[in-house]
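Need a sequence for this fold. Nothing fancy.
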């Protein structure tokens, strides 16, 4: 109980100074029910869109998923909890079926991610509901691990802008010291 109060205090202490995510763009591999490629792009302060192209280990299904996710930092912007919703389209090759079924559905995601330097690791659960065929209700769920490389870090453009402003100011004034400047 004592630890819970301490953790709650720390969360409130850092809540005003942290923001979700320490990167803008990351890409890598996803493992869970198959193997796939994942690309994540930040679109707002605590929001990302993620695209996943995944194939089942059996090799007869390919799924494309698009997700919108909201991130909430835990103690630091490098450790996040996130949740989201999206759509998927799947292509199934089954020689035993007379008619080809390529389902479309709604998918949800919830998980945690950790970014260390340029490596972003996440663990999530991704339940899906097939909505394209009314005759059968199909529910699917994956637990997945993603390992991504951070392509564009947060603050990259801010640092470049600050350097330009500093250089421009130095060029204009001749130095960083303005004690001899006349008003």
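Here you go.
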């Amino acid at each position: 109980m004592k630890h819970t109060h301490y953790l709650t205090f720390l969360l409130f202490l850092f809540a005003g100074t942290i923001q979700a995510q320490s990167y803008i763009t990351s890409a890598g591999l996803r493992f869970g029910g198959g193997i796939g490629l994942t690309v994540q792009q930040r679109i707002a302060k605590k929001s990302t869109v993620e695209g996943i192209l995944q194939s089942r280990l059996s090799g007869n299904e390919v799924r494309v998923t698009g997700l919108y996710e909201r991130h909430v930092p835990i103690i630091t912007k490098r450790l996040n909890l996130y949740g989201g919703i999206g759509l998927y389209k799947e292509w199934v090759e089954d020689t035993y079926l007379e008619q080809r079924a390529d389902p479309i559905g709604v998918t949800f995601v919830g998980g945690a991610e950790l970014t260390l330097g340029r490596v972003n690791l996440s663990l999530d659960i991704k339940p899906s509901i097939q909505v394209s065929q009314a005759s059968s209700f199909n529910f699917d769920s994956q637990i997945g691990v993603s390992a991504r490389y951070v392509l564009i870090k947060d603050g990259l453009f801010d640092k470049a802008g600050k350097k330009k402003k500093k250089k421009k100011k130095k060029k204009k004034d001749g130095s960083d010291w303005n004690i001899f400047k006349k008003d």
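For context: The first helix runs from residue 2 to 15.
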